[in-house]
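Reopening this one. Same input as before:
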Amino acid sequence: MSKIISVLILYVILQISEGINITCDSFENSCGKCIGFAGARCIWCSAPQDISEKRCQTEDYKYNTKWCKKEYIVNPEPINEIMKQNDEFSPGTPTIKPVQFRPQHLKIKMRPGVPFSFDMSYKPAKHFPLDVYYLMDHSYTMRPQTKILQQQGRQLLMELEKFTNNVQFGVGSFVEKPAFPFANPNIHIAYSFKNHLKLTKNMSMFEEVLMKIPEGSNYDDPEAGLDALMQVMKCEKELGWRPVARRIIVLCTDNTYHSAGDGKMVGAAIPNDMKCHLDSNGHYDSDLKYDYPSVTQINRVASKGAFLIIFAAVNTVKKEYEALKKSIQGSNYVEFKEKSNIVDIIKKEYLKSVEHTQINYDRLKNVELTLDPDCSKEGICRIKHNESLTMRATLEVKNCSPNNTLIMQVNPINLKESLTIEIGVVCECDCEKHGSGEMNSKRCNSAGTLQCGLCNCYDGRYGDKCQCFGNSTSNTDLDKCKLNVSDVYMCSGRGVCRCGECTKCVKGFSGDFCQFDDKACERVNGKLCADRGVCRLGRCECDAHWTGNDCSCPEDDSDCIAPYSKEVCSGNGKCHCGECSCNKMEGKDDIYGGTFCDHCDDCTEKRCQELGEYIHCVMFNNKTYCDQIFHETETVIDMVSKTDNKSENWNVAQECNKALDNGTVILFRHYYEGKKIHFLVQKELDVLPVANIWVAVGSSIGAVLLIGLLTGVIWKILIDIHDKKEYAKFASEAQAQGFVVSNPWYRSPANNFSNPAFNNN
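Same output, byte for byte:
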């Protein structure tokens, strides 16, 4: 019997909990929680006397004087702009910094859930300072490329001076760490970095230095490019980088690079400290002490220093440097050929950095920033000549947090100007701040402070009027422990009611009436709020850039981009909540198919080209290496034999091939499991069947001759039939008129001769 009663009680409790809906009146015992609720615009009544309804209500209650008098209503402004620095655009002077990005500072107070919009503008300044540093790979194999740079130095200055009259040039070089097994210091000229010329406007000195840099040499293929790059960026004072200038580093090389961990081979086991270590001669003197920097470290320093890095490398290492640029903000790869015009390369990248802008900003967990147009994406925002670009920015605080003073930096990539946003999140009422309220209030039995109409009891006292002592067991005012007067159970059946307050809520439940289950929010794969938010007051409060009841819906489109692709939904659909909704095919009564809308008759070739480079890498390298280069770690590779490709997914997978320079091809197939791509790669290289051109030519010629011959025969037959009909008609008409139709000149070829000696008998 007792078990049945227990089951019934549990059922009633579950029914009660399922009916809970989070509204303003759920925050009865805290003014701060009331006004900080992001789900609705709530207001608070701080009247010192008891009121007929709950103190936290929706904003439409502010006109209800029976609920609360106007002077006691706490309703902070949703947005309160305290301070704004918004200097006008300016090219600057020798003593005044130029202004290209505005505003520069913004200080605001915001309530959670209330969006705040403002404008940001960018306009490139005329004759803005430009610093260009050449970082040359001076190994022996780079001689042709070095000669190109030596020949084009003066021309480069002349071209760049068309855009700005304030240009500086510097030169440095690198080879390799001077130790075995990378180099033999006894026979090789090897060094990680050496500055040959600080940034200067003296073009004659620049040209002279270019001609005198000695050639280096080493054993292995990878070079010390990242080692040198770190020193170039960190030694700002030593190299003469100007604080206010557009900074360009041109790294020219014909080989790959060493990165963190490789230095241990030569005894450089200490992680790179991201500091400048140049001696008085401009030589990196700690290259055998510190390891090579990691790509992450390079990206961190490049972003902070606003450097535009151009990797000018030969085609044989294109994959490595195209992958590297994806990991370093503000970098790019250009192919460097023996007949390359280095002037055009730098000019093109300089103009690209001036004419386009990309915005970077701090990603704070509970703050969301959106831009219109979305200049946070590369290639979206282009600036017209002598005009400014204005972006509409919208800022929204998702919820209250332990730290309600937040700082966000917003800046154009490759530019040392930024907007600093100071956000004060309004999650506390003035009337409940420390030092406010009526101390030793009589309404609180002289045992607490009256704040916002509620008693904040001193230690050892509790109850809504501080009427109870620490050892009190009073069970008066039981109805005050009910969320609704009609509730059967006090404290939602999950706590103890003492002095009109719910205490000792069952573990996992919270709220003034123990009404919220802290683990009842929606889950994704067993993870509460998909691990992208917090379950608070019965609902998921999502982190920035995530939405949905379970926080599983991303606001960006990254989940809709297929592996090794760059287009959202392959350019054939729209992204909604991380899933592709495919478009209808143009001119056909059908829609694109597949997880990423890449299934159609005309899509195969395009998709195979996107995947071919990765498969080529995997075929001849370690998969881990290729995953690092292509920034994909979820790929599954199955190598299958040509004679035994009996994978159960072989027939459903999409067939592709990657042609190699030697005429062979890599045959592979791909399919998806969810959004994870699987490859089936044939171990053996194959050769596509080659058509015999002479067979094709001979067949064509034979077909033409046959058609001609048949045409002639048919023509002859038709002419003979026509002539026969005409002659028969002519003969018939002639006979009808009495003419003898014969040829008077005709003589029969047959003659009869009689043999006189022949006897018939």
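So the earlier flakiness isn't reproducible anymore. For the record, The chain has twelve helices and 40 strands.
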